[in-house]
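Hi U.,

Before I forget, here's the chain from the pilot set. I'm dumping it here mostly so it's searchable later in email.
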Amino acid sequence: MRLQIVPVLTFIIFGVISFKVDAQSKKFIEFSYDQGPIIGNNKDWADELIDIIDYSGVDVRIGWRSGKNIYYNYINRYPSYGLGFTSAVNYYKEIGRPMGVYAFGEFPFGKNNFDRKLNFSYYAQIGLGFNMNPYDAETNPINGFVGTAINAHVHFGLKASYQFSSTLEGFTSIGTKHYSNGSIKKPNSGINFVPIALGLRVNLDKEKFNPGTKPDFPPLEKRGIWNIAAYTGLKSYDVGEKTYFRGGLGVNYLWELSYKYRGGLGIDWFYGAGAKERYPDENIGFFDVNSFAIVGSWEWKLTERLYMPIALGVYLSRAHYNQEVNGFYERIGVRYRMKNNVFAGVQIKAHKAKADFFEFTLGYTIPGKVRKIVNP
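Structure:
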């Protein structure tokens, strides 16, 4: 299992909605230039790199905003989806010239008002980062940010746009752009930029975007569901070491909170292989490589079947040899639930935003009985 699977799976999952561009979708192209600092980690080598690197970049995106008047679009304020390409302008022998291809989603703030000139939104980009010069003990020992030439590209941020005409919009944004291999190979502190962007959007459809009045909402069926998930991944524990299996199981009970969200509690179990090989002289016990946690789970429903899992877990017991360095962890990703209730996805598990490992997830949802029907 290679790191390239992370963005490939993400493209497939996002593509379920991204490539279903109906006739009511409004298509656009965006061009932007961004510039900002690189964030270090208080290490001497990181401070030295920050003094060297002056980041600036360019982005090109193609996207579409669905005007289909359905309630999932309405509650998410008619989001935009698409694909993009980004590249740093300057080349540095220490990190290369980072580039990325990604899928993105953009979600407006505020009420659905399509006559506003000034609009605000937040966005997420997930994809593949490449063209980097990774750490090498002999030729590039200063780069502790990334240990692989190919990494995941993740970018979250806020955006403000102004509509000059039916065709042209200007925008500015600020966010965090992150490149990481999810600890598949060390070192992996991650490259973190905080870019501020200026750009233009060219709308390819002249017709005004106006999906119409509020759509009809179906009755909300209040019920609980059981999610049973298997996590698999890979992790390297030290520089120069090989990669070992990481994985586990999760059982969560979630309740339909609204048309947009589910929430609940569950239990996670994690296992890390290779401890006996890495520490042959030590007596490795069960709880040294197995950990258990209580996890609060949240699902943000983007469509009927596509959703983002968000979780915060608190360890009941931590595996000493699995580098579970904090008493809690975070999880965020994307999943797709099929009609037979099987779901698949990819998430990042992290400790205080530092990657533990990428979770490739396969699971099954058991719907409970409808306890209450809420009419809209």
